[in-house]
Design a protein that fits this description.
This protein is an all-alpha fold. It contains two helices and no strands.
Amino acid sequence: MSLKTLHQIIIFAGMTISLIFAYWCFTSPTAAGSNGYFIAGIGAVFAAVGFVAYEVHFLKKTKRLIIH
């Protein structure tokens, strides 16, 4: 497994964990009426979007590199 592939897997895992956390924040029974869970969920969604943006940037940057 190349370093590029490992990097992509780790970025994907971070994005997935962020989205799972956001889902939990929005659907948790203890979150009813709590602004803290809502803010944490919004932050997790922003983190997931950041992971996607970083992945796109990473793929563009490594496209011209010869990495096997």
